């Protein structure tokens, strides 16, 4: 039931809002044909599994799911480190940001600004990581290039299978999160100006700082 309902929730979220926010519980229960008590129980379970997350006063959001489950990706993940992933991200994501800045509409930009605000509102490293992941995924979607998006999601899938989240979360403190959020703001500003070069540069600066932090913490693999 959880898997089936999760898929329905993803479908509802995709139709309702670009940022993955689910409708209010009363409306959602009616749409899915379940009681509010049953809906809350499933949402609680999915939240514990990391499939959705809730924010006080903001609602419930669906976490984008990487394209996992393929043995070749699992095999690859055992042979690479977070630093390896960052090297590839720095080659891919600035280009995605540049393309997305060119193609983004006003609604896209408003949604991206909301996601940047959600990163800033995060109260702990885990909450920031979740919001940050959605922010970056949304930029990939905004490129409106299915192949480019698929490449990005392959990287996300491998990233999720490495030591990334377990080792990176303790690295982030309040000051570092604030710095990352300022970098997100620079990306959003470039989108507002439809400045593809500035978008590329802002994303590259953001990822360069993340990569440097990872290397300073010794998360290069084989250590």
Order of helices and strands: HHHEEHHHHHHHH
Shape: globular
Radius of gyration: 18 Å
Number of strands: 2
Which structural class matches the secondary elements?
Answer: mainly alpha
- With strands numbered from the N-terminus, the spatial order across the biggest sheet is 1-2
Architecture of the largest domain in CATH? Up-down Bundle
Count every helix, treating DSSP H or I runs of 4 or more residues as helices: 11
CATH fold naming of the largest domain: Four Helix Bundle (Hemerythrin (Met), subunit A)
Tell me the major beta sheet.
Answer: 2 strands, antiparallel
Oligomeric status: single chain
Percent strand = under 5%
Helix content: over 70%
- Just give the CATH class of the largest domain: Mainly Alpha
Fourth CATH level, the homologous superfamily of the largest domain: GntR ligand-binding domain-like
Low-confidence stretches: none
Structure description:
The chain has eleven helices and two strands, in the order αααββαααααααα. It is mainly alpha-helical and 223 residues long. A two-stranded antiparallel ribbon has the order 1-2. A hairpin with a 3-residue loop joins strand 1 (52-55) and strand 2. The radius of gyration is 18 Å and the shape is globular.
